[in-house]
């Protein structure tokens, strides 16, 4: 039910068509954050829990609650925050219609509303990821392993040296490749990773320091391969929808 809006990445100038996510209200009706058409997206360089939520009013029952802030991952590795139209202020002397008597959603100690659940596919809030600075190719593999562990994968095995298969990390239900080179990962790299995952009945996850060729990104979207880019701080960023979904659901 969300309205599609054009979004241009301020970093690489790619044009995207974005559809806001839809969540169920307590009354049972679907609710989508109303996007602010024409407003420039904001590049996310630092995340806080407060910035991750936006106030949305249900058009059916009038309840006002907090929902995840719409975001879009660009192929260049930039993550964009999509502006949402503010909820109008109630007229003087009236109280906003909410699901609580206090007139606003209760918040937990972490700052998120307790009466609105996360999306059904979302994992419980995780502690803040602590990245590892990348100085060598081996550091890049270790940083990726730390991130996968943060996502919930257990018993991660790291190859002692660069394997011929290209699979640097393995865990139950997961194989991962880490490309520390200065060239964008190509189509063949993505397809080989997908085949390894298919043969192992596991999800294949790709990490790259230099990003991805356009055809590799398109193929990964088709095959459902999560793609991440890492900078030298060791902080992976999702660059396609499968990667966003992996972050939401966890291992």
UniProtKB/TrEMBL annotation:
Residues 116-126 have a biased composition (Pro residues). Residues 86-127 are annotated as: Disordered. This is Restriction endonuclease type IV Mrr domain-containing protein.
